[in-house]
Amino acid sequence: MYEILAKYYDDLMGDFDYDAYEKFALENLKDVWGGFGYDLASGSGEMAIRLKRNGFKVVGGDVSPEMLEKATEKARKARLDVQFVFSDLNDLHLEKKCDFVTAVCDGFNYVKGKNLAAAFNEIYSALNDGGIFIFDVSSANKLENVLGNNLFYEDDENLTYLWQNTKKGEKIKMDLTFFERDGDVYRRFDESESQYIHKTKDVESALTAAGFSYRLFNEKFKKFTERCNRLIVVAKK
Q: Domain boundaries in the chain?
């Protein structure tokens, strides 16, 4: 799962502004500074590593063994002690009480609609009183109107990939084809994944039902509107 994607994940995420997201997260975690928490859907571990550098105790979780391996190696190279463990947002179980939970860059878009409330409930139960939950989803507008049924591609010296999106009900099926350079030839790899469309009202309803108070932001960390491409949530127990 994500064998080739894990290898090039950080390169493909080059346009994602981790510096701005880190600043935003730290501002909203100031009341639990230095506490223990989980970075879910951790991917290559970038946010978990940044939180660790800022004095937090953090465990990263992801469903992909390849991503967990990459994140572990990345933390080792940074000489930081960050544990990365298997964690599935569709069947979430958090073993320890915590002060914060983060899940950045679309993690909850991989959660089926029927599982969203259960994940929020589990996080609420794991958080200490006053605990903070920061996460985001690609908005319904982005998935339906920007990605939709469209084809995207990227081409550089060592990797070319095609990204075909197909809207199927309340999800977008993403078929990824990679051509990786190997000397004088290119090798083809195919991967598929699905992202689920979460309407803002459904996210808010699940947060409220779990017991959270919350604030909504867009990808620029300003006021969210339905035309924005990313919904960022800061929730508090």
A: 3-138+199-236, 142-196
pLDDT digits (tens, 9 = 90+) for 146-199: 999 999 999 988 889 999 999 999 999 999 999 999 999 999 999 999 999 999
For residues 209 and 4, give the distance between their C-alpha atoms in angstroms, rounded to a whole number: 38
Q: For every residue of 178-199, which 3-state class applies, written as one string?
A: EEEEECCEEEEEEEEEEEECCC
Superfamily (CATH) of domain 3-138+199-236:
Vaccinia Virus protein VP39 (3.40.50.150)
* Overall pTM > 0.70: yes
Among positive and negative, which fits the CA dihedral 124, 126, 132, 135?
negative
Name which CATH class applies to 142-196: mainly beta
**Maximal CA-CA distance, the chain:** 58
